[in-house]
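ok new one. same drill as before - structure tokens go in, u give me an amino acid for every spot. 431 of them this time. try not to just spam alanines like last time pls lmao
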């Protein structure tokens, strides 16, 4: 080994590089040398405080500009809609119909708000005790709300009509009262879903049922629970109509210190998002009932949002609508909060209960149950594949167990979710 080492080249000698005058004069080096060690005391304690003051001033100015803009906009867009409105009618006495009746009635004490109901006992309760004895019975209603079972009495002289009847019963109900409806009476739809046999939305159902293709129509949607409206908690919703003036009028009618109303012209987007989110909420409830965890929940809702976007945009909806209040906002509320009827149906399905038992125990309609099959038929019409929503429809039809549905969904091709619909179509996956 010693002999071999004699033939090796001598090891290089490494010496630390000396700092030349040129390097010492470098501004970079000078700047680095000025940085104090972490434990050194500095005289610059005032600078951060000064910076905070500047930032606060910028934020304050930005907020003041926003407030001034808001006041200016309101003064320019003031309307006498509320002043000229004498009567509003609400069709249906469920939770949301009751909450909207209370919302409008509270804005103007001398405004007559008529509720058209089927139950005489509930009518007497509202008229004499100012309480809806069937829904939201723990809340008192404004005294200017009156209830009746007479369609002619309720609709006579109405300036606006809120439709709060479940979608599956709307056609027959509207047909029975059509003779009392003024052709120019604006209908504000609170109902979300698709008619099972025809795949129609409320914007199609109302004109057809009333026999008037020009019946003024507005849809009201967004993340909102009736109980929180009754509590007057801050809420934001959107009204959509092809008639901008009509949408603005309804905005002025409803907006208050606790209810913010935006306007849109995308009726299709608002309606389809409102219908499909109920089906997705059932899926979210199933995941919760099966205790599949937060990761699974997030993945499911993300996939469901994509499916809603695929179908809605194919039908002409605007992407901005789907990312707004009536889209993402309503989806988040319905999928993640226990107050959602559709989510609770899914929760109980995921826990092993039978659908018939669940529905028999409910006193309100979960629109997602009847909408699920209609959504899939609509998707076939527009040639769009919806894995998650299809799985929900098959579970509801008792053709697939929740556990099997999860296995099928997890075995989908692991690829870009944006193109999964087309891959499912090509490889022929069924659920």
């Amino acid at each position: 080994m010693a002999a071999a080492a004699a033939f090796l080249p001598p090891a290089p000698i490494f010496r630390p590089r000396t700092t030349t005058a040129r390097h010492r004069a470098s501004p970079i080096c000078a700047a680095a040398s000025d940085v104090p060690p972490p434990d050194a005391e500095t005289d610059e304690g005032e600078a951060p405080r000064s910076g905070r003051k500047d930032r606060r001033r910028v934020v304050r100015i930005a907020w003041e500009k926003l407030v001034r803009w808001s006041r200016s906009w309101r003064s320019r867009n003031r309307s006498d809609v509320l002043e000229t409105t004498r009567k509003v009618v609400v069709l249906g006495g469920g939770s949301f119909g009751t909450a909207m009746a209370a919302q409008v009635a509270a804005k103007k004490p001398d405004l007559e708000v008529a509720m058209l109901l089927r139950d005489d006992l509930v009518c007497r309760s509202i008229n004499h005790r100012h309480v809806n004895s069937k829904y939201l019975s723990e809340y008192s209603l404004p005294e200017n709300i009156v209830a009746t079972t007479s369609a002619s009495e309720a609709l006579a002289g109405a300036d606006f009509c809120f439709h709060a009847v479940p979608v599956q019963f709307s056609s027959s109900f509207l047909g029975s009262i059509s003779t009392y409806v003024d052709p120019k009476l604006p209908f504000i739809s609170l109902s979300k879903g698709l008619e099972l046999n025809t795949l129609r939305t409320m914007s199609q159902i109302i004109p057809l049922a009333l026999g008037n293709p020009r019946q003024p129509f507005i849809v009201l949607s967004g993340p909102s629970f009736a109980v929180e409206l009754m509590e007057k908690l801050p809420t934001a919703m959107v009204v959509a109509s092809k008639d901008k003036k009509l949408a603005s009028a309804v905005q002025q009618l409803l907006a208050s210190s606790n209810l913010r109303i935006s306007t849109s012209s995308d009726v299709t987007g608002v309606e389809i998002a409102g219908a499909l989110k109920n089906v997705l909420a059932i899926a979210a409830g199933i995941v919760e009932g099966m205790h599949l965890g937060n990761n699974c929940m997030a993945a499911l809702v993300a996939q469901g949002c994509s499916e809603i976007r695929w179908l809605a945009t194919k039908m002409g909806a605007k992407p901005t609508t789907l990312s707004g209040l009536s889209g993402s906002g309503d989806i988040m509320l319905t999928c993640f909060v226990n107050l959602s009827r559709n989510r609770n149906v899914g929760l109980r399905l995921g826990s092993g209960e039978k659908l018939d038992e669940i529905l028999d125990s409910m006193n309100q309609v979960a629109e997602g149950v009847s909408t699920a099959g209609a959504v899939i038929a609509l998707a076939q019409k527009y040639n769009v594949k919806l894995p998650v929503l299809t799985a929900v429809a098959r579970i509801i039809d008792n053709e697939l167990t929740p556990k099997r549905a999860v296995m099928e969904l997890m075995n989908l091709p692991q690829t870009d979710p944006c193109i999964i619909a087309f891959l499912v179509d090509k490889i022929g996956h069924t659920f």
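The chain has two domains: 81-265, 276-427. and btw Confidence is low (pLDDT under 50) at residues 1-34, 418-431.
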